[in-house]
Amino acid sequence: MDYSMEDTQNSAPDAQQASKLNPSGQKSDTQSVTKRLQAELMQLMLSPSPGISAFPDADGNLLSWTATITGPTETPYEGLTLKLSFAFPNNYPYSPPTVLFKTPIYHPNVDFSGRICLDILKDKWSAVYNVSSVLLSLQSLLGEPNNPLNAQAAELWDSDQAEFKRHVLARHQDLDDE
Amino acid sequence: MNALSADEMERFQKLSNSYQPDVQGPLVSTKQSSHSIALDYSNADPTLATKTNALAITHPECRIMKGDGNCGWRAVAFGYFETLFALRDTLRIETEIRRMKSLTTLLERVGLSDSIYEIFVDATEEVLNRTHAAIQNGAQDESFLVDAFNEGYCSDAIITHFRILTSAWMKLNPNRYQAFLPMPLNQYCSSRIDPVKTEIDEVGLQALIDGVIEGSGFGVEILYLDRSEGDVVTPHQLSSNSPSGATIRLLYRPGHYDILYPVETLNMAPIVNLQYGMTSDYSPWDQAALGFDVNSSLMAIPNLMQDTSFGMGAPMSPMPSVSPTPASPFRMSPQQDMYQSPMPTHAPIPPIPVSPPPQIAPPSSAPPPMTSLPSRSSDGPQIRLNPLVMKPNLSRSLPATTPFKNSPYNQAHFQNSDFEPIHWEPHERR
């Protein structure tokens, strides 16, 4: 009996159908990413958290977003509005988004290109994190730096808070809406 | 200390950030011989070589997981689906679909919103549905599961589902696990369970089995390959479920998990699909030759053989061998005369109320109506007898085999000089 023949005819129709509908795995990934990001956007709009916001860029590409966080009270960043960019990989949420500060910021965990050193955006990333939890983590990072990417800022944070705040304000520069 | 310029540091940092260990092979391999594992260790420590050689005999097949940090999670998840498929029980899969859905209450209780966990639960459910469909369609093997687990997104989603269930289970049962953890449980979950591509450790594995697998009734056995004393890998039961039932077997080598298949599962009896009603194209009895020799005893069952020379045809036309000449009735061949003999060949067709009148020609493939029961005439026995009974002298016609050595009928006893017949003694209790 020709089992190989039978296999192709009797195997799960779902699997075959799925492979017909999505000839490349890439496409189905993109659909899943889109679905997940749409759900996140819905969540952010229906129940916004104070001090954070995020929205996809106007170019219609759901994989790149712009977000804002407000500097928490009783930190050198109090009252400042900071813009960030999110770039989501094709296998989001199984890989973290690339998050950058667009607003120039003086902070021990952020370098002068806006790159952030935060474990949950690297090896501690979990698929249950989302835009909102990343923004909340970043907001708390502003008041609790931990990993000196900017060694000078880290030193100053420990030695002279007033001087640190002067550096923050000197570096800060509000971005115009694009 | 800083011998490198900032630019160089940046370049190295970039390289380091983008570094992906070069791991070859599929996420989940096809079944392969465990001898490949033994070969890996042939030049290693003799203890490992001995153990892997022994392993290749007790567990001849294995399935290699890609060592990308998810191997332990993936091995358990794949083993779960594969074991479920191997049982070929669609009801059980439906039960599992319901159970997996009900486990989402764990996620709710630790504060995850459905918009977050939905895609993970959906992925597990979809593969459960695929498994269900594969059983119904009589899929030959589990290749559809291997395919599903090699689709990156599907694989990641199921693993994440199992991760977040484990994490939630631990947070809801802290007393069971905290004592084994080097850090507060919440921190443990966020650094060792939740992150993508973090290897499962022993506590995490135990929690995964307690929280996710245990409810399925499957046992989980881990075989530890290390340099401890002994000639075989050390088995360890991680589930309170019976190890004799469906069991997921994992091989642990420090830092890596694979799936193992013991000898028994190779010789598993062909799986019978009990949903026999699903098929209607059975070949008719009379067309397909029976796979066994028809003997006279079987012939005593009415209508078993739809042979035209037998059954229906018999009363109509005299059979060639109808005279009772039981030359050797114990040949393993159709001895129709043995059955026919009590039946007068001229007997009229007895009216049997339940069967349709013989004039109506039945469809060719359907068994013809049974009209050839022995007539209850006075010249034949009133009951249907075993052909052996019809022999005039039953005892003489018994097969001439050597009497049992210890049988009292064995006359060889008398030729034995030491032979002593059994004497009955009145005081003896029988």
From TrEMBL, chain A:
Keywords: ATP-binding, Nucleotide-binding, Transferase, Ubl conjugation pathway. Its EC number is 2.3.2.23. It comes from the Eukaryota. The keyword Membrane does not apply. The keyword ATP-binding applies. GO terms for molecular function: ATP binding; ubiquitin conjugating enzyme activity. PROSITE patterns: UBC_1, UBC_2. Residues 1-33 are annotated as: Disordered. The active site is at residue 117. Residues 32-178 form the UBC core domain. It holds the Pfam family UQ_con. Belongs to the ubiquitin-conjugating enzyme family. This is Ubiquitin-conjugating enzyme E2 2. It comes from Penicillium egyptiacum.
TrEMBL record, chain B:
Residues 394-418 have a biased composition (Polar residues). Residues 420-430 have a biased composition (Basic and acidic residues). One of its GO terms (molecular function) is cysteine-type deubiquitinase activity. One of its GO terms (cellular component) is nucleus. Residues 60-263 form the OTU domain. GO terms for biological process: protein K48-linked deubiquitination; proteolysis. Its EC number is 3.4.19.12. Keywords: Hydrolase, Protease, Thiol protease, Ubl conjugation pathway. Residues 315-430 are annotated as: Disordered. It catalyses: Thiol-dependent hydrolysis of ester, thioester, amide, peptide and isopeptide bonds formed by the C-terminal Gly of ubiquitin (a 76-residue protein attached to proteins as an intracellular targeting signal). Residues 317-327, 345-371 have a biased composition (Pro residues). PROSITE patterns: OTU. PANTHER family: UBIQUITIN THIOESTERASE OTUBAIN-LIKE, UBIQUITIN THIOLESTERASE PROTEIN OTUB. This is ubiquitinyl hydrolase 1. It comes from Penicillium egyptiacum.
